[in-house]
Amino acid sequence: MTFENFPSAQPPQLPKSKPYTKNIREILTGTLLAALLVTWGYIIWDKNKTRQILKETNSQLNIIAAEKDDLKKMLDDATQRYDMIKTSSAEMPHGTDSAIIKKNNEIEEKKNIINQLLANANASREQLMEAKRLILSLNDDIQVYKTQIETLHGEKLILAKEKIAIILEKEKIQKDYDAAKELIRNNEKTIDIGSTLHASNFNIIGINETKNGKEKETTTAKRVDKLRISFQIDENMISKSGRKEIYVSITAPNGLAVAVDELGSGTFKTREGEDKFYTNKVEINYMQGQIQTVSFDWKQNENFNTGEYKIEVFHNGFKIGEGYRRLKKGGLFG
């Protein structure tokens, strides 16, 4: 059998190439390395970016914390100034002035809002900016509060000075008035004393009334039915004309005042404030600057005693004169 050389139906197999496989491997390896490098690079970049973000965040937090500390210090300074103003004005006489009370309430309310903003741990920049604005406004309010107190205090001081001036003026007027009253009283007292009448020329006699109605003068005590008392009122240029009350006080020999209520006796006050019995009150129609004679009879409801009777005359509480009459015993040797 003869074999002929014909081409095979299968393609001829090329010899295996080692360099080609090596290239593929290198390409794959390079691609993987590149991808790995890219991945690591991204990771490193992302990590750096995260660090940067964290750094910026920390920086932002630090800035916010610093701003918050600054704002707290600003608030503390404002609060301290406000407290000093309140303390220094505690004794000022502004009382319960409505404007000051209103401003005080506004300041306290604003302080509370600021404290709430600063107490927020997650406060935003906008909230801190609002807190700063409120603190600046608070400082303005404190200044207005201080001005209001100083103004009101100044007004109160002016009013206090005016009040003191008025009080001093009133005291001066009162002193002048009292001095004038005292002068008037002294003048009236002088006039009153000067207008007090004076009695003189006393004549006191015992009268015996006979059965036929005649009167006989006697000094025998048991025969005396009444005492006829007369005296002269001297002229006085100060005492005005008009009715005058003259008190006549009779003292018996035993030293007791003769006073009989049924016969019109009573008491009066002397200028020394002493209550003194009077035996009889005599009213006269006095004529200024003229001498007058006063006369009256004293007839008592009991016998007259032996001894000396003292008759005192009073006007305006002053004793203006006195006289005496001694009555003796009856009989041959009386």
Structural features, described:
This protein is of the alpha+beta class and 334 residues long. The protein has 2 domains: 22-194, no CATH class; 199-327, Sandwich (Immunoglobulin-like), CATH 2.60.40.10. 49% of the residues lie in helices and 23% in strands. It is built from 3 helices and 11 strands. Strands 4, 5, 8, 10 and 11 form a 5-stranded antiparallel beta sheet that branches. β4 and β5 (257-258) form a beta hairpin. α2 runs antiparallel to α3 (125-194). It starts with 17 loop residues before the first helix and ends in a 7-residue tail after the last strand. The relative contact order is 0.08.
Uncertain residue ranges: none
Could you estimate the helical fraction of the residues in percent? 40-55%
Average predicted confidence as pLDDT = 83
Beta strand count: 11
The end-to-end distance, rounded to whole angstroms, is: 236 Å
Number of domains: 2
Radius of gyration: 65 Å
General form: rod-shaped
Alpha-beta content class: alpha+beta
Please trace the helix and strand order, writing H or E for each element. HHHEEEEEEEEEEE
- State which percent range the strand residues make up: 15-25%
SS element count, helices: 3
